């Protein structure tokens, strides 16, 4: 069950300044809190999915370490190997023309068939739903999967598309001037989830 957090009330407010003119308002989770939550997500997936027919795919950048950590936990629990891939949705974004004339493309890596599989799509933060929509479009180019599940570390609300996660780590109520930033050791050198405002 997802943890519900009121972003303005339940975490201690600080006055530290963060990147790009943003101010760090709250720390939603530290390293231990993140790991406990990822372990819970892995347990929920193990209980509800047929892992023998499942693959995990992380949306770059920070959906990838989430997917890899879940796979590592599931493999330790079950003793069975699982497949994990990564998805770069750059060319499937509906705002591609706005972000850059020459967007940075890191490439997708899905070294297995998704045809007939249950694909568990992982991302760090669910916001408007447009990133997930783009990921769904790209996944269909890899084959006709039997089912798609969505696993997110943080659901911050403000949906613009009818997309709902199947597995949620934290539910954070945010204001319009706030954002959630997830840090992983693999990409950022540390594990934490922050609420920033600006």
Write a structural description.
This protein has helices spanning 31-48, 63-78, 96-99, 130-142, 185-188, and strands at 3-6, 23-29, 54-59, 83-87, 118-126, 147-155, 167-173, 178-183, 192-197. The protein is of the alpha/beta class and 198 residues long. It has one domain: 3-Layer(aba) Sandwich (Rossmann fold). The strands form 2 sheets. It has a 6-stranded parallel sheet. A 3-stranded antiparallel sheet has the order 2-9-8.
Topology (elements, then pairings):
Layout: E1 3-6, E2 23-29, H1 31-48, E3 54-59, H2 63-78, E4 83-87, H3 96-99, E5 118-126, H4 130-142, E6 147-155, E7 167-173, E8 178-183, H5 185-188, E9 192-197
Parallel strand pairs: 1-7, 3-4, 3-5, 5-6, 6-7
Antiparallel strand pairs: 2-9, 8-9
Helix pairs in contact: 1-2
Output the structural class.
alpha/beta
CATH architecture name? 3-Layer(aba) Sandwich
The parts where pLDDT drops under 50 for at least 5 residues are: 7-17
What is the string of SSEs from the N terminus onward?
EEHEHEHEHEEEHE
Shape: globular
When the domains are counted, the total is 1
Q: What is the averaged pLDDT score?
A: 90
Strand content: 25-35%
User: In what order do the strands lie side by side in the largest sheet?
Assistant: 1-7-6-5-3-4
Q: What is the number of strand segments?
A: 9
Distance between the termini: 30 Å
- Output the CATH topology: Rossmann fold
CATH class assignment: Alpha Beta
Number of helices: 5
Major sheet: 6 strands, parallel
Task: Quickly describe the structure.
With 198 residues, the chain is an alpha/beta fold. The chain contains five helices and nine strands, in the order ββαβαβαβαβββαβ. The strands form two sheets. The chain has a six-stranded parallel beta sheet with strand order 1-7-6-5-3-4. Strands 2-9-8 form a three-stranded antiparallel beta sheet.
